[in-house]
Amino acid sequence: MQKLGSAPSRRKPSADRIAGAVAAALLVSADFTAIADEGSLRPYTIVRGSIPASLTGAAGDPARGRAIVLDRRLGACLLCHTGPFPEERFQGTLAPDLSGAGSRWSEGQLRLRLVDAPRLNPDTIMPPYYRVDGLTRVGSVWREKPILTAEQIEDVVAFLSTLRD
Amino acid sequence: MRALVLAAVAAAVAAAAAEIAPQDRHSGYDFAGPDTRAMQDDDTANPGMLGVLQGETLWAAKTGAAGRSCADCHGDARTSMKGVAARYPAFEPALARPLDLEGRINRCRSEHQGAEPLAWESADLLALTAFVAYQSRGLPIMVRADAELRPFVDLGSALFHRRQGQLNLSCSQCHDDNWGKRLAGAVIPQAHPTGYPVYRLEWQSLGSLQRRLRNCMIGVRAEPYDYSAPEAVDLELYLMARARGMPLETPAVRP
């Protein structure tokens, strides 16, 4: 099995590496796990239910993050969530209201929730926005690509942090 | 590690949603708005009826090398086709697999009419399917997982409950666990195949159940099944068995 926290490699993912990633995914309830990057994804470290460090090393832009959250095809958040966006019609009722998310959760907790929500709740319907492994029958247009890029994740995290009660 | 995995599996099983109880089942009709329902209820306003009428013409048209019409073999559809759609997909011994109504019609063309199969989602195939299914309007769905069909129903069920696509969602997470809630503007129905082919307002045309399944798969960013792929028929079969006892509404109108 691949050593957890090993340096990211530029090789194409092999069956072994994927098996390693799956095994790593099963170990996440441990308090401290480092995930090696899969191809183009950047590595990140989970510390007690949170990813404390920015995926890009820089802070995101909340205005861009807001646009991503409202974009039905990019973030698609309002398919499921409602939020403090009175101008937006047709918000979903499948998930909690995003109002106050920045008061309820730290930036690192929001980041893990976006990157890979099923790590926190294996039954969640919230899609993993920054993961490419362990998925089934992904359409060819979307294959091997995360839903959002690392930069976009940081923008959304920055925006959600501004949603205070 | 072993224990962890087992615990995770147990938790997943415990949290998995129960199937919808028979008394709680609702057709997509019940989730549609009043205008859409009124359109379905009135044959003179239901655009799907145009397809049924076109199908009636095709039923009587001689075609293929054999120069035979459907009516030449089956006679009056009002009696010979009554209840047929309610038990499809049905097991086809020659293929050792289930065949859906569209598949059956195309097989009749190649085996008995010496004609080319009609293209999936062509106006003619939809019209003939709608005409045949219309003869079962109001009759309860009869598909059951008998000895021959059971393995295919089970395969369809596994596909229904499997997460898929970039959004990582299973059919059942929306249609068993979250029906009645809103996915953006759309109310999530229970996915009962009660009205197919349906006239869908978004399509502005009749469309097959397989087209509907492809829409949902593309919605979760999964690679849709090809038309008439075994997986697609297994899913249709599972949905029909799941809706057993519910009346057929063809041609239904849906948003």
Rg measurement of chain A, Å: 16 Å
Count of discrete structural domains of chain B = 1
- Biggest pleated-sheet summary of chain A: 2 strands, antiparallel
* Reported CATH architecture of chain B: Orthogonal Bundle
How many distinct helices of chain B?
12
Oligomer: heterodimer
| CATH architecture heading of chain A | Orthogonal Bundle
Biggest interface found: A-B, 30 and 31 residues
Short summary:
The complex is a heterodimer of chains A (165) and B (255). Chain A has 165 residues and is mainly alpha-helical.
Description of the structure:
The complex is a heterodimer of chains A (165) and B (255). By secondary structure, chain A is mainly alpha-helical. Chain A has one domain: Cytochrome Bc1 Complex, Chain D, domain 2. Chain A has helices spanning 15-26, 62-70, 77-80, 101-104, 107-116, 150-161; strands spanning 32-35, 44-47. In chain A, strands 1-2 form a two-stranded antiparallel sheet. In chain A, strand 1 (32-35) and strand 2 (44-47) form a beta hairpin. Chain A is globular, with a radius of gyration of 16 Å. Mean pLDDT of chain A is 83; it is low at 1-33. By secondary structure, chain B is mainly alpha-helical. Chain B has one domain (24-254): Cytochrome Bc1 Complex, Chain D, domain 2 (Orthogonal Bundle). Chain B is built from 12 helices and 7 strands. Chain B has helices spanning 2-15, 28-31, 34-41, 48-59, 70-74, 77-80, 101-113, 123-134, 150-161, 171-175, 209-219, 230-242; strands spanning 90-92, 97-99, 182-183, 186-187, 198-200, 205-207, 253-254. In chain B, strands 6-5-7 form a 3-stranded mixed sheet. Chain B has a two-stranded antiparallel ribbon with strand order 1-2. A two-stranded antiparallel ribbon of chain B has the order 3-4. In chain B, strand 5 and strand 6 (205-207) form a beta hairpin. Chain B starts with a helix and ends with a strand. Residues 1-15 of chain B have low confidence and may be disordered. The chains are: A mainly alpha (165), B mainly alpha (255). Chain A binds chain B through residues 26-27, 29, 72, 76, 78-80, 89-94, 118, 122-123, 125, 127-128, 135-142, 145, 147, and chain B through 1, 4-5, 8, 11-12, 15-16, 162-169, 173-174, 177-178, 181-185, 217-218, 221-224.
